Amino acid sequence: MRISIQPGRLERAVEGARDAHDPPLDGLVAAAALGFLSACWPLGPAVASNPLVTARGRRALLAASAASGCELVSVSADYVAAQPPGGASARREAILLSRVVDWASQVGARRVSLSIDAWPEGPRALRERLEPALDTAAESGTVLALRSSAGAEVLRALIAELGHPMLQASFDPARAAIDGRSATRELDELGPALCEVRLIDCDAAGVPCPLGSGVAGWSDLVPALAARRFSGDLVLCDDGGPDPRFSALRALNFIRVGVSRASQASEHVGDAA
Questions:
Q1: Which has the closest alpha carbon to 75: 32, 44, 120, 31?
Q2: Among 161, 100, 101, 99, which Cα is nearest to 126's?
Q3: What's phi and psi for 233, nearest 5 deg?
Q4: Which of 85, 172, 255, 271 has a Cα-to-Cα distance from 219 of 20 to 30 A?
Q5: Cβ neighbours for 259, distance < 8 A, ≥ 6 positions apart
Q6: How far apart are CA 235 and CA 1, in angstroms?
Q7: Distance of CA 148 to CAs 13, 30, 71, 155, 190, Å?
Q8: Helices 87-106 and 123-140, packing angle to 10 deg
């Protein structure tokens, strides 16, 4: 499994007034300096000023990624997906999402992730909303990773009914825990459809907290992911707290230690057998 980060969560430590969903290019440098070798680039409210949306900006992103050694592996389109559906606005947002998929492929990102919670229910309505993006995804080989607070069973069934090869699942274990669902059971439910897990934790009231200290159950999740040979991305996308860089380092080390322990435990089991 690969550990990625949304660079914007780091930049607020330097530029407090900047929207964390629209990070500057040097966010990739900051991520690499902390040990993150891959990143999920967010497309936030300031769409027009995001480097992803212009050819010049995309060239700059590619250059920054190459110079820093931090690979752009995905793009977060949560802001685009959160726009209220209906009429011409829904069509515009569907076209914008298709463009995001194209832009993502141009900077080397192989996945676009988004929450579908704000979208109309039912596979037919969802298919209409996703159709332009899915056409582009098929042409570019880009995966659309869908996330839903309705739970893994609902999301897996929806992806299966839509039946498109470029549709996979993104999972938020903190959200599942708050809603009273077992995160490890959700992993089993999603199975091979799962390509992304959000590195985020919170207390029972939903207040963000350091990874591993909340209700998400990361101490059990890390070995569970290792046991399932999860080969997707763990994406650090929390709000960073008062010291975003320290919390990012802490989260990175927490996951690395957990993976190492899970690997050692697996070796001991193999030796005993």
A1: 44
A2: 161
A3: -110, 140
A4: 271
A5: 1, 222, 226
A6: 10
A7: 30, 30, 26, 6, 12
A8: 30
Question: pLDDT in tens for each of the 273 residues of the chain?
Answer: 899 999 888 765 444 434 445 566 888 999 999 999 999 999 877 788 899 999 999 999 999 999 999 999 999 998 877 765 555 566 777 888 999 999 999 999 999 999 998 776 677 888 888 999 999 999 999 999 999 999 999 999 999 999 999 999 999 999 999 999 999 999 999 999 999 999 999 999 999 899 999 999 999 999 999 888 999 999 998 777 788 899 999 999 999 998 888 877 665 545 544
In whole angstroms, what is the distance from residue 241 CA to residue 259 CA?
A: 24
Give the Cα separation of 262 and 227 in Å (integer): 8
- Cβ-contact 168, 206 below 8 angstroms: no
Identify which of 166, 175, 80 has the alpha carbon closest to the alpha carbon of residue 119.
80
Please list, in sequence order, all residues whose beta carbon lies within 8 angstroms of the beta carbon of residue 30, skipping any fewer than 6 positions away.
7, 10, 11, 14, 245
The structure tokens 């690395």 sit at 256
Question: Which of 122, 42, 131, 150 is CA-nearest to residue 93?
Answer: 131
